[in-house]
Amino acid sequence: MATLKALVVDDASFVRDLVKRTVRTRFPVIEITEAANGKKAQFLMTRTRFDLVLCDWEMPEMSGLELLRWVRQQENYQRCPFIMITSRGDKSHVIEAVQEGVSEYLGKPFSPDGLSKKIIKVMGRRLKDAMTSSGKSLEGPADAFKESAALLTGKPKEAPAAPERTVASKSRSVAAIRFADSVLRCVVKDITLTEIRVIAKRDQSFPGILDQAVVDMEINEGEVARLNGYVHQLQAVEKRQDTDFVSLVIRFVDEDPKKMEDLSRFIARFRAGG
User: Within this chain, do residues 12 and 129 fall inside the same structural domain, yes or no?
Assistant: First the structure.
């Protein structure tokens, strides 16, 4: 029987499902409630006491950072573990979240192990005792309870050290798509508001079907939009087993209007450069 309550906040239902699946599988003592944006989460938190918040940064109506600020102003939530799960992995954003009182920061795309490790770290003995009382074993990194509680001042370890960008020009459109454990370098063949199709050399590390992905798109000089998605399709470019190239389709899951606007601008540039 669940003894702890967690709130998962993300405007992408696909991401919420991934988080819920991981938590329910590894921590059955945690009951999950979900919200599609910060406003909905705020409403739920005024009516139910949650023991953990797992929240995206970029959402319509109220962002994750705005929700975090509100949470830390509430007397009964000042010490509630709050994990920010987002594709914003640069140092400035991590520091900003830390200054607002975030407990931990997890970069997209994330692995189940990475998410589990963060949950174990922020919930500590309370989670361990709940699992023990329910006769369950605590899965995850064995040394997670021993990690320092020092504030983050750098990029999350789960994300690649240096997120790469998609660059559109009249001569080419190259892309780097981030996955939980790798970065795939490829060429953009087509892009719409719902998906991107790319071609990549076979000598790289490839993801699996339904794996999370983050596509970094350069909108203007120094301005990058990050689109969250998942691997919808993988297939050989040539009809032979030893093909040198593989085609991937990444389906976008973001519903944030700002991201859709950025995507539209990128598509316009891509079409003009083709």
Answer: yes
